Each structure stands twice: as structure tokens, then as C-alpha cells.
């Protein structure tokens, strides 16, 4: 087990270097000079442009920019934005907001998704099952931003239950609506995945045995059935945490949540390489760690899975 | 849903007030008359902004967001009268010159910064010296380039030789002099911009930290800055200026999308939106009733020719005039742009000193017959095809398509939009002189004098002349205008210079800008606007709850 974890952690290093390099190159390929764009419509001041380019190391060859960036990164320095703020400060402000939003979305998708899935799976072919299937199909087929605007119009503008946009990004209750929108797509997938495995496993031998032993129904479904059926669901949920954080860009825009999605969008559109690479790097780390945790969870769910 | 509801509001303010009570539960549109109720002098406002790009230092705001906050915290020497563009003293007792080259500034005594430091001549001189220095990376540092000794603090290459401009001299606590490199008869007009604000001694100890917690001399005092969320300022009761705040304070709230802001405006969580989102342009007037704001300001939209291309290199100016005449500005501004623009008839925007209507003359009037004739007489458009380059990250596509359609319909010349993914890419093409045919161009005033719209854009060597336009007659007149001793002379000579542009068009003037904005039910009366297209926040009054 320990060796397995160590190996996995070591594997992260090349992945980490590869992704940062790729993003670095991609940002560089974006057309236009981000420094000159600071002047907008008016003519840029060549002397000041030169000073700023030098300050941000943009006058160096690309490989040197990258190695400098990595060297700083290993000392824990994420660099500066064009506006002179530390990228690490920026992330410290925005990541908690997005994590909170992702958490709300995650809880909604896990609780609702699994519950719907279990009900549908146990009643496969019945009316409940059909209703869940239709509902999830609907959610999957509607793009997130459309859903966002519908929710906003219905719950905020028409019913007046909430304010149309989040007034305080620190407040959990205000994040419920955007969280529901953000989690809706995954909710549908979780429900469908759960439904499929439950309806398969419910006919398996061990279920019949458990039933024959006279175990209470709660225990059969809750422990025997659910534990075996959740493996694919957990895989999905694990990778979904990363997706939720990245996917927050659209939702954050609609509900004016000042999270990492907004920062990333701003950084990309302004061509701020350091900020973009910094944020994406952290997102990559989140992805890597969640997938590691998922792999480790397999062993808990199914003791037959063992790691050397 | 919105459409159905909107219909109720068409009949105007009185009906809105009555209907609001009739449909309770509809929180969003429950407006009442603009001047119902009493004014609360301590009421506060929430206005839209987005995160300022840079620390809040006077010379560091190129975008309107940072600029707007700075304007509330600082007061400069002069400001402009809305509508006429004339300057009016704020912190200055007088700004005078006898030869347009040597200027004397006298300050009103008794002014204080928010931290208690007195505002003196030194506060200005130190501020300008610091801001002009390349080492301090101020985006607007080029504004000081008229001053003698600017090249020492801001050399074209290498490190600054000095940290003081030789042209600035402190005479006494309330007086200083400015020596310019050459005559600029409208120099006092430039002084209304935010780069010229004074700075207290405390600033220079740690400019960076200060930029996060600015201390100004203006009508409002800095309270807090929650990055990416909001900036709060409170009225400064010790303020000495004539433009005292008529409200208790302002919260500048960060919105990343105009749609989110618009929704918040409709539910009164936001008191002023800077621009109605495109998606609501068709119905915002119904939604908001008399709370809808349409405000013309001094900015112009053009389509410029890239004269370095084979297409336009040796073109007969008649062809350019023909193309310009082929555009139906009236219809496009009314339909495609929902009345949010005003057809342009000259090269200088309205409200600017020296603005002369119709200086573009025949070229800016729609006449497809004559357009065809002119193009034919001039030998036609090489390749019979033109394109207009624009940046797709802003809503330009619709009007570019409309302009192209108009040209195609009137003259049969093929016209297409040439979209670049973002503004950076668009600028890049312009700068490298790789524009294929024509490009979108525009200008918002820096200061309300016609020279600002002409000198910086159409001189053969002007920085803003990206299309390689050359016009000897214009250059000569502009040079003469720059050498004039008085503002009147300069303005007049520039007016003459503007007339030469009509003969050989550098750009096709399309329309003047107007903002489509809106205010909440909490605002008393209509929000007053300045010439730069921004509301005059100190004059906004808030209703008592």
C-alpha cells in the first residue's frame, strides 16, 4: 500500500511538469502582446512597455521564461499579476470561494444523485425509474448556462426567494442555487450510474444469499448492495471534483461568484501567463490527488482489490 | 416571461408607480417616481465596477473602473463643466500662462488629505515626478511628456537619469510653476485627468501598499477594498472643494458579467449599471421606465483604412468618399444598435471644444447613387472587395456586418468582417501593419479639446495613426495649431485642419457613442453624467427609506 502511494506520488511529477509546460506554451501562443494591451485603444508607451516586459521576464526566450517560472514555483512563489499583486494572494482569495461552491454542488449531487439512482435501480422498469430517467435526460441535454439563467429567472426574478446574483460569496446559503446549477449535470450522471449498477447487482448471488439469511432489508441495500455498486460511482465522483472546480467558470459568471473560475477567465483573456499557469497548476494538483484518493477508496469498498 | 411583464411598463413612469403596487411580489420592477419621497443625505449607493487592474495610484488607471474609484478619492486642480467642456477650478485657485509654455498654478489654501496632511504645491510636484518615472511602472506616465525634463525621468531606453523633472518648480506652499518643452495652449485642459492628482508624503514611503489603501484629497475617503468583490468609500466631511458629495458613500461592486449586474439592478441590489447588456438592449427601456439612462458622451467610432496595403496605397480619395457615402448610418444606429449611437457628421465627438458639425460633409451622408458614381470616378476599389477587421471579444460583429451589408447593397462591392479573437490580437495586427484592408477604430476623449481627437490620430507621425495616413496640409496646420499662444487660436487652426480631412478621408466616421445605463429605485432624480460617459457620483442623491 505505502509503496503504491509513493509510486503514484512520484508519477505526479512528470504529469505536473508536462501540464505546466503545455499551458505555458498555450498561453504564449495566444495572439497579441498582453503588455501593450494594457494601454487599450490608445497608443502604448514604448519605454514603459520595455520596462514592464523586462520586469515580467517577457523579453527572455520562452524556455528561459519557463525554467524561471518553475524555479520560482519550487520555492513556492507563484509570481505577480500585471497589476502587481501576488498570484498566491489572488488564489488564496478565490480558491476558498470556488471550493465552497464545488462542495455545495458535490453534496447536492452525491445525496440527490445516489438517492435517485438507488430508488430507480430498485424499481427498474417501474414508473419511478422512468421518471428518474426522463428527469436526468432533461438535465443532461440542457446546457449549464441555460439552466443557470432559467434558475435565476424562476427563483430570483419571479419568485424572489433569493437575490439574482450572489451578494456575499462567503455565505453558504447564497451558494445553494449556483451550487445546484453547477452540480446538476453530474447529478444526472451519478443517478444514472447508480441506477445501472444497482439494478445489475440486485440480481446477483450474494444478494440472494443475504436475502435467504433473513437479513433486514435496510442492511441488504445499505451495506451489501450499495457498497458493491458504488465503485464506478466513486470513480466518477473523484474525477468530478476537479471538473466542478474548473467548470465553475460559467456558473460563477451567471451568479457573479468571485471564485477561481472568474480569475482564470480574466487571466486568460488578459494574457497573464503567470496567473493562468498558477491557477491551472493548482487545478491539476487537485485532479491528481482526487484520482489518487479514488484509487485508494477502491480497496475500502472492495477488499479483493489490493495494491502491491 | 420578461416580455409579457415588460409590456406593462410602456406607458411610462406614472403607470409604473401605480402598477407596482398592483402586482405585489414582483420585487424587481417595483419602481416609483424618480423624485418621490425625501432625500437622505447620508444614504449610500452601490455602483457597478470590475476589479481595477492596478493598484489605486493616480497615474495607474487606464481602464474606466480604476479611474472611477480614483475620481471619488481624489480632487485635481481642475475639472470640466459637463456639456460645454469648459474647465472649472477645483483645488486650483488659478492656472495661468502668458505664452502657453510657462504655466503658473496657484492652489486654494487650507486643503487637507484624508490623513490630515496639507495639500501643497509639493504634493503635486512630487506626485508628478514619481508618476512620470519609468521605474514606477505607471500606465499613464506618458501624460507628463509635455513637461521639460520628462526625458530624464522617462528615457526611451535605459534607466532614468534623474527622479525629478526640471520643468517643475515649487515656489511656495500654494504655488508652483510648470515649464513645458514646447507650447501647448490647452495644457490646463489636460490637468483635469486623473494622472495629475496630488499625493501625500505618506505615499512615497510605500507606494505599493498605499495603492491598496489610497489616501486622497477628494470628496470621498477610502474605507476598504475586498479584492474581486468590492471597494467601499465614505463621504469625507472635511472636504474643502466645491463638489461636495451629496450622498453618504459609495460601494463599487464587482461584476464579471453585465447580465448578472442587470438582474441585480432590477432587484435593487445594485443602484447603477454602467452598460445594459446586449441581451436586454431591446427591452431595457420597458423594464426600467424612466430609470433607463441614455447618455451621449464624447467618443467616436470609425472604420479606418490601412493605407499601407496595396489596396489603398495609391487610391483616389473619391473612392474613399464613395465608400463612406454607401453607409446608411441612420438606419444602422436605429435598428442594429437600438438607438444607442448617434450618426457622426465629423471627426471630432460632440461636447468637445472646437466640435463642428458636418465637417465630414457630403462623405458622411448616405447616398447610394452618388456613392456608386464616386467609386466609379475614382477608378473603383482594387479587388472589388474590402474587409473590416474587429475584435470578437466585444460586441462589434453585429454593426460590422450591418455596415458591410450597407456597402454591399449600395455599391455591389463585396465586404466582409475580418474578426480577430480578442482585442490583443486585433491590436497586434494593427501594430505590425498587417491589416488586410480596413479596421475598426475609435476614440474616447482624454480632454475636451478638438486637438485630442485630431492631433493624436491623424498627424503623419502621431502615435495613434496606425493606418499610415499622410496629409501634408493637415500636418502643416496641426503644427501651426500646436505653436499657437492661446486656446482659441489652437482650436481654430485645428478646425481648419479637420476640414482637410474631408477631402482625403483617413477614416470613415460612423457614429458618436452613447451609454445605455440604468439606475435603481433608490436613486433620487436622474443620475447626472459627465462628458467622459461616467456619472458624476458626488451629485447623485439617495432616497430616504
Automatic annotation (TrEMBL), chain A:
* Alphabetical UniProt keywords: Cell membrane, Membrane, Transmembrane, Transmembrane helix, Transport
State one Pfam family annotation. Answer: BPD_transp_1_N
Q: Among its keywords, does the record have Nuclease?
A: no
A GO molecular function annotation here is: amino acid:sodium symporter activity
GO cellular component terms, semicolon-separated: plasma membrane
Q: What is its main location?
A: membrane
Question: Entry's SUPFAM superfamilies?
Answer: MetI-like
InterPro entries assigned to the protein according to its UniProt record, in alphabetical order? BPD_transp_1_N, MetI-like, MetI-like_sf, Na/Ala_symport
Task: Give its localization.
Answer: Cell membrane
Q: Which residues form a coiled coil?
A: none
Query: What membrane topology was assigned to this protein in its record?
Result: Multi-pass membrane protein
Q: Which residues cross the membrane?
A: 12-30, 97-119, 131-152, 172-191, 229-255, 275-301
Assigned protein family: Belongs to the alanine or glycine:cation symporter (AGCS) (TC 2.A.25) family. Belongs to the binding-protein-dependent transport system permease family.
What's the protein called, per UniProt?
A: Oligopeptide transport system permease protein
Automatic annotation (TrEMBL), chain B:
Which InterPro entries does this UniProt record tie to the protein?
Peptide/Ni-bd, SBP_5, SBP_5_dom
| Organism superkingdom | Bacteria
What residue range is the signal peptide? 1-22
> What SUPFAM superfamilies does its record include?
Periplasmic binding protein-like II
Looking at the record, the residues that make up the Solute-binding protein family domain are 92-464
- Which segments carry the region annotation Disordered? 25-65
Q: Which PROSITE patterns match?
A: PROKAR_LIPOPROTEIN
Among its keywords, does the record have Signal? yes
Q: Name one Pfam family in it.
A: SBP_bac_5
UniProt keywords (A-Z) are: Signal
Q: Where is the composition biased (Polar residues)?
A: 45-57
- Name-wise, this protein is Oligopeptide transport system substrate-binding protein
The scientific name of the source species is: Streptomyces syringium
Amino acid at each position: 500500500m505505502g509503496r503504491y502511494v509513493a509510486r503514484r506520488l512520484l508519477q505526479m511529477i512528470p504529469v505536473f511538469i508536462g501540464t505546466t509546460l503545455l499551458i505555458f506554451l498555450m498561453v504564449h501562443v495566444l495572439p497579441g502582446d498582453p503588455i501593450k494591451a494594457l494601454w487599450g485603444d490608445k497608443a502604448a508607451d514604448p519605454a514603459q512597455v520595455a520596462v514592464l516586459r523586462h520586469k515580467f521576464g517577457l523579453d527572455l526566450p520562452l524556455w528561459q521564461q519557463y525554467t524561471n517560472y518553475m524555479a520560482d514555483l519550487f520555492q513556492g512563489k507563484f509570481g505577480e499579476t500585471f497589476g502587481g499583486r501576488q498570484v498566491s494572494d489572488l488564489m488564496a482569495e478565490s480558491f476558498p470561494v470556488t471550493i465552497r461552491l464545488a462542495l455545495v454542488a458535490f453534496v447536492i449531487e452525491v445525496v440527490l444523485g445516489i438517492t435517485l439512482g438507488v430508488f430507480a435501480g430498485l424499481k427498474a422498469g417501474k414508473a419511478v425509474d422512468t421518471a428518474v430517467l426522463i428527469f436526468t435526460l432533461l438535465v443532461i441535454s440542457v446546457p449549464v448556462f441555460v439552466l443557470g439563467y432559467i434558475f435565476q429567472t424562476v427563483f430570483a426574478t419571479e419568485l424572489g426567494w433569493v437575490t439574482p446574483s450572489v451578494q456575499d460569496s462567503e455565505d453558504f446559503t447564497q451558494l445553494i442555487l449556483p451550487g445546484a446549477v453547477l452540480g446538476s449535470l453530474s447529478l444526472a450522471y451519478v443517478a444514472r450510474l447508480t441506477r445501472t449498477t444497482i439494478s445489475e447487482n440486485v440480481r446477483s448471488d450474494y444478494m440472494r444469499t443475504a436475502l435467504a439469511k433473513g437479513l433486514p432489508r435496510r442492511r441488504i441495500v445499505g451495506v451489501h448492495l450499495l457498497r458493491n455498486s458504488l465503485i464506478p460511482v466513486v470513480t466518477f465522483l473523484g474525477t468530478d471534483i476537479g471538473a466542478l472546480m474548473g467548470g465553475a467558470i460559467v456558473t460563477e459568471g451567471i451568479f457573479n461568484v468571485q471564485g477561481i473560475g472568474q480569475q482564470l477567465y480574466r487571466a486568460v483573456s488578459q494574457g497573464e501567463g503567470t496567473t493562468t499557469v498558477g491557477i491551472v497548476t493548482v487545478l491539476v494538483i487537485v485532479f491528481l490527488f482526487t484520482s489518487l484518493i479514488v484509487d485508494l477508496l477502491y480497496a475500502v469498498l472492495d477488499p479483493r482489490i489490493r495494491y502491491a | 416571461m420578461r416580455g409579457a411583464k415588460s409590456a406593462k411598463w410602456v406607458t411610462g413612469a406614472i403607470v409604473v408607480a401605480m402598477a407596482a403596487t398592483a402586482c405585489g411580489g414582483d420585487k424587481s420592477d417595483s419602481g416609483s417616481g424618480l423624485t418621490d419621497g425625501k432625500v437622505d443625505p447620508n444614504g449610500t449607493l452601490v455602483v457597478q465596477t470590475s476589479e481595477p487592474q492596478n493598484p489605486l495610484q493616480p497615474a495607474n488607471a487606464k481602464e474606466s473602473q480604476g479611474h472611477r474609484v480614483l475620481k471619488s478619492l481624489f480632487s485635481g486642480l481642475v475639472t470640466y463643466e459637463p456639456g460645454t467642456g469648459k474647465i472649472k477650478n477645483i483645488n486650483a485657485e488659478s492656472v495661468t500662462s502668458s505664452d502657453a509654455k510657462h504655466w503658473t498654478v496657484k492652489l486654494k489654501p487650507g486643503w487637507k488629505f484624508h490623513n490630515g496632511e496639507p495639500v501643497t504645491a509639493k504634493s503635486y510636484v512630487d506626485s508628478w515626478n514619481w508618476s512620470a518615472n519609468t521605474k514606477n511602472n505607471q500606465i499613464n506616465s506618458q501624460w507628463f511628456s509635455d513637461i521639460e525634463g520628462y526625458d530624464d525621468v522617462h528615457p526611451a531606453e535605459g534607466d532614468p537619469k534623474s527622479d525629478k523633472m526640471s520643468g517643475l518648480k515649487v515656489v511656495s506652499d500654494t504655488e508652483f510653476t510648470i515649464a513645458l518643452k514646447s507650447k501647448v495652449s490647452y495644457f490646463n485642459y489636460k490637468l483635469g485627468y486623473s494622472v495629475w492628482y496630488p499625493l501625500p508624503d505618506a505615499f512615497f514611503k510605500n507606494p505599493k501598499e498605499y495603492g491598496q489603501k489610497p489616501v486622497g484629497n477628494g470628496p470621498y475617503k477610502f474605507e476598504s477594498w475586498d479584492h474581486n468583490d468590492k471597494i467601499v468609500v465614505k463621504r469625507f466631511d472635511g472636504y474643502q472643494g466645491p463638489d461636495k458629495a451629496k450622498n453618504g458613500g459609495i460601494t463599487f461592486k464587482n461584476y464579471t458579467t453585465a447580465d448578472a449586474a442587470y438582474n441585480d439592478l432590477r432587484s435593487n441590489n445594485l443602484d447603477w449599471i454602467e452598460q445594459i447588456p446586449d441581451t436586454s438592449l431591446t427591452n431595457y427601456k420597458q423594464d426600467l421606465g424612466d430609470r433607463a439612462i441614455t447618455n451621449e458622451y464624447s467618443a467616436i467610432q470609425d472604420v479606418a483604412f490601412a493605407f499601407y496595403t496595396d489596396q489603398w496605397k495609391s487610391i483616389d480619395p473619391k473612392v474613399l468618399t464613395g465608400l463612406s457615402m454607401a453607409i446608411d448610418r441612420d438606419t444602422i444606429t436605429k435598428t442594429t444598435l437600438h438607438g444607442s449611437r448617434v450618426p457622426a457628421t465629423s471627426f471630432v465627438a460632440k461636447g468637445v471644444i472646437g466640435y463642428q458639425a458636418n465637417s465630414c460633409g457630403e462623405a458622411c451622408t448616405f447616398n447610394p447613387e452618388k456613392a456608386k458614381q464616386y467609386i466609379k470616378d475614382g477608378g473603383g476599389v482594387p479587388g472589388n472587395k474590402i474587409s473590416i477587421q474587429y475584435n470578437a471579444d466585444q460586441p462589434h460583429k453585429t454593426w460590422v456586418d450591418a455596415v458591410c451589408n450597407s456597402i454591399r447593397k449600395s455599391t455591389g462591392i463585396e465586404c466582409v468582417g475580418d474578426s480577430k479573437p480578442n482585442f490583443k490580437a486585433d491590436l497586434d495586427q494593427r501594430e505590425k501593419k498587417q491589416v488586410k484592408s480596413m479596421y475598426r477604430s475609435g476614440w474616447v476623449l482624454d480632454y475636451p479639446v478638438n486637438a485630442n481627437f485630431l492631433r493624436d490620430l491623424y498627424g503623419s507621425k502621431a502615435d495613434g495613426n496606425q493606418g499610415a495616413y499622410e496629409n501634408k496640409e493637415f500636418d502643416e496646420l496641426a503644427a501651426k495649431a500646436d505653436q499657437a499662444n492661446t486656446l482659441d487660436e489652437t482650436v481654430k487652426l485645428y478646425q481648419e485642419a479637420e476640414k482637410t480631412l474631408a477631402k482625403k478621408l483617413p477614416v470613415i466616421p460612423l457614429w458618436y457613442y452613447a451609454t445605455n445605463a440604468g439606475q435603481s429605485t433608490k436613486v433620487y432624480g436622474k443620475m447626472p453624467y459627465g462628458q467622459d460617459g461616467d456619472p458624476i457620483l458626488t451629485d447623485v442623491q439617495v432616497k430616504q427609506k
